[in-house]
Design brief:
- It is a single chain.
- This protein has 20 helices and 7 strands.
- With 500 residues, the chain is mainly alpha-helical.
- It has 3 domains: 30 residues, no CATH class; 238 residues, no CATH class; 123 residues, no CATH class.
- The strands form 2 sheets. The protein has a 4-stranded antiparallel beta sheet with strand order 4-7-6-5, with no helix packed on it. Strands 1-2-3 form a 3-stranded antiparallel beta sheet, covered by helices on one side.
- Helix 3 packs across helix 18.
- It starts with a helix and ends in a 9-residue tail after the last helix.
Length: 500
């Protein structure tokens, strides 16, 4: 709230505290360390999001076949039992005890049907392992229901990676939740709209997201529609199909080959833990990829100093939880350099930009979720510690030699991680990212460094800034900028400003 007041001081005519004082207040009012949510190490975060995206991409490749397979299975049940009442009846109440997939008694082989629709390999890959049989105890047509449930749950996991939503908020999203808006100043942005639960509209159920969630939501909508098609012919489902609002993104299984239920379409299925997805779907994650390395532990403890040493050990798999995605996502928005996969890095930067504009600066008239805005602002302060730790790396150099560099980073190298995190929150160690690297000047600088490098690097007839640390990682972007500038100068004509 203090941050929001400061950002809107021009429109309301006052502010209570400047950012430096907010940081100090934040340090004093932080939650007890025992309540800190673990931050997922970047390598593991990238692995899990890559696997989720791989599943989503595979689904869209095979969705026509999945749709056709599902509908043919429904048709086979109607053909076999003659009426929907018997098709959906408990086994003891059916006139025929065998099912249309009872192969030893003349039924259809499910693997033949899956092969016919071109989805055998997709089902094998995600349910049992490549090349494994689709037939056997616990398999067959029930595998199709299992796959659809997997699609719904993995879709939710993907959404949570690109929002700061809580699991119960994401779980109650409806099919029309994804919105694309056009801001007159900042252009196109995406958001998820949920149901407002508060009496007063001080915090609406809207969350900034990335366009990368669109395929995940499309997948979930299509699965939801398939299950609704079974519910419409299921006589045990209560008739609330014409409700004014769209149905939930996640529907329970209503297929006649699934466990019989008498629930309505408006009833939400209970959500499971994120950790349980690895147990239910063992092909989802490679356990060895989730094993913690020393570097993983180091980064995780940097953000979460009180990381549980008993739960998170080197060479042990990371233990996932839904709320970790919320915190990790908020931190990664502020430190997207941790995410090395280019497409995901773009999505993070895209989301970070609009979270900053809308959650923090309040440019939009739309009222967004207050808790998500607070999570975003808190992460902005917390991630200072990440960037401060990086300054001790040898890639940072001073134009005045190692002596000056050592003087500048002395407060950092002499602090342990916990003290450094506290310093980052309080603002006692100040830095600004500039084109050439990092500026450690604690005072206000009128020379820029964001849109030019003349005064920072010493191109104005004087020496370079004494508070500057060059970042070798920025060499290529600076060289690209130099080349682009030279091209502009070569092609510039009078009276262009570039000509002078």
């Amino acid at each position: 709230m203090l941050h929001l007041i400061y950002e809107n001081q021009e429109s309301i005519g006052f502010y209570l505290l400047p950012p430096s004082k907010i940081e100090k207040y934040f340090a004093l009012t932080s939650l007890p360390e025992s309540k800190q949510t673990p931050y997922i190490p970047p390598r593991i975060w990238k692995y899990q999001i890559t696997r989720l995206k791989e599943f989503i991409d595979d689904y869209h490749t095979a969705k026509a076949g999945i749709n056709g397979l599902y509908k043919e299975c429904l048709d086979l049940y109607l053909e076999h039992y003659k009426t929907w009442e018997f098709a959906f009846a408990p086994n003891r109440a059916r006139k025929r005890r065998n099912t249309p997939f009872d192969h030893p008694r003349g039924g259809v082989r499910f693997d033949d049907l899956a092969r016919k629709h071109g989805v055998e390999q997709i089902l094998q890959k995600w349910l049992y392992g490549s090349g494994a049989s689709l037939m056997g105890p616990g398999k067959g047509v029930t595998g199709l229901t299992r796959y659809l449930g997997m699609a719904s749950r993995l879709g939710i996991a993907y959404i949570l990676n690109f929002t700061t939503m809580r699991i119960d908020e994401a779980w109650s999203l409806r099919r029309d939740c994804l919105k694309k808006e056009m801001d007159p100043v900042f252009g196109e942005f995406w958001m998820l709209a949920g149901e407002t639960t508060k009496l007063f509209r001080d915090s609406d159920a809207r969350w900034i997201t990335s366009p990368t969630v669109e395929p995940a939501i499309q997948m979930m909508v299509e699965v939801s529609l398939l299950r609704e098609s079974a519910a419409k012919v299921n006589p045990n489902v209560l008739g609330d199909l014409d409700v004014g609002r769209g149905h939930y993104l996640i529907l329970r299984s209503f297929e006649p080959w699934a466990s019989p239920v008498g629930k309505t379409l408006s009833a939400l299925v209970h959500y499971d833990s994120y950790a349980s997805l690895s147990w239910y779907y063992p092909q989802l994650f490679d356990k060895d990829q989730l094993r913690l390395t020393a570097d993983d532990i180091s980064v995780a403890r940097l953000i979460t100093p009180t990381l549980d040493d008993e739960k998170y050990k080197i060479n042990e798999p990371w233990l996932f939880a839904w709320h970790q995605l919320r915190r990790t996502g908020a931190v990664n928005m502020q430190a997207s350099g941790l995410v090395s996969l280019s497409s995901l890095q773009y999505a993070m930067k895209h989301q970070s930009r609009f979270q900053s504009l809308y959650y923090a600066q309040g440019f939009s008239k739309i009222i967004f979720n207050e808790e998500s805005r607070n999570e975003h602002i808190k992460a902005a302060y917390e991630t200072r510690s990440i960037k401060l730790m990086e300054l001790a790396d040898k890639r940072f150099t001073s134009p005045y030699g190692d002596g000056r560099r050592n003087t500048l980073i002395a407060p950092i190298t002499s602090s342990d991680r916990k003290k450094l995190l506290d310093a980052a929150k309080k603002g006692t160690i100040v830095f600004r990212e500039v084109l050439l690297g990092v500026c450690l000047n604690k005072e206000h600088c009128t020379k820029g460094g964001i849109d030019n490098i003349v005064y920072c690097g010493g191109g104005h007839g004087k020496g370079a800034c004494a508070d500057l640390l060059f970042d070798k990682a920025k060499l290529i972007p600076v060289m690209q900028l130099k080349a682009e500038t030279e091209l502009l100068l070569e092609s510039a004509q009078n009276p262009s400003p570039y000509h002078t």
